[in-house]
Amino acid sequence: MTRHxxxxxxxxxxxxxxxxxxxxxxAGGVLKQQYGEDAVCDFSIGNPDxxxxxxxxxALMAVVGKAEEPFTFGYMPNAGFPWARAKVxxxxxxxxxxxxAGDDILLTCGAAGALNVLMHTVLEPGDExxxxxxxxVEYGGYARxxxxxxxxxxxxxxxxxxxxxxxxxxxxxxxxxxxxNSPNNPTGQIYSEAxxxxxxxxxxxxxxxxxxxxxxxxxxxxRFLAFDGATVPALLPLYPxxxxxxSFSKNLSLPGERIGYLALNPDxxxxxxxxxxxxxxxxxxxxxxxxxxxxxxxxxxxxxxVDFNIYAARRTAMAEVLRDAGYEFFMPRGAFYFxxxxxxxxxxxxxxxxxxxxxxxxxxxxxxxxxxFRLAFCVNEEVxxxxxxxxxxxxxxxx
Length: 399
Prior knowledge:
The chain is α/β, with parallel strands linked by helices. It contains 14 helices and 12 strands. The strands form 3 sheets. A 7-stranded mixed sheet has the order 2-8-7-6-5-3-4, sandwiched between helices. Strands 9-12-11 form a 3-stranded antiparallel sheet. It has a two-stranded parallel ribbon with strand order 1-10. Helix 8 links the parallel strand 5 and strand 6. Helix 3 packs across helix 10 (292-301) and helix 11 packs parallel to helix 14 (388-397). It starts with 8 loop residues before the first helix and ends with a helix.
């Protein structure tokens, strides 16, 4: 009998190309089974290893006390509990320096859910979603989910700052959304206030030329993790079509709970219609509503976070290890990743060489940043130090 295709051509292509992050993560599983956990240095995936702050346990225990009450875990409005949206609005108002209400907030199944909801709501077939490379590779899949195409706009080499000549060329008539991720995964760069002000002015001009708004989607799960006194600029006051997207995966170590939010600019004209569309999209995409437990935990833990100093110490340790081994790298200003240059220039070949040392990294090609590789330092400092000899041997092999 003839074998028929079981998946569509787009999904088949994505299966074949795969996510480098997941491929390396799975390769690590094989190595750990073969040699043992302690023999493998796994820097492949940004899965926070720090325990959640104590406020998370307190909030969770409070929900447990409600477990026998009717509707504790029942349906709620598709946008989330009104009281939970109000708490996020209050928190975000302080962070952004604007006055938000609960109706400006949509609670979502993580930042990924928020991005999909936004694209489903505003994209027309053939619209473009622009992203500044290097970037989290799933952005392209999200755009295709909703009839859009991905436009890759390079950042400046070496520093990974915004390249305004590239932005001028890359943002066109079909651009509907520009995604920025600061602090950035995978580079650790934070865009300065001067640069985001200039970006806001560029988007305002391009929107006027296009005759429709270009949304600025600020993907900010690493906002809490800025080093050496760096600050992440507030974007809502700068551009009316800014949409803040965030999650509690990193700052509260809750990636598996899938709780995040989307916030609209309170000064956006017609925001009620946009929010109505977002809420509808949240439902028809099958998310239906954000997780119940996540909302209770988030509301009880707002304003707290994991121990920042541990990440800062790990950053220092990783920089020392890479520097001693002779790597070239940009010192990350935020997030928990390094993005060094791959010795020899072939990032895939070099990452495969690291596998021989039982070190798991991700090729920069997976982030539209070829010639580099990513190391996630959300691991114990002992693992970072233990990787030093293998990193040096791999580097020496490519001299």
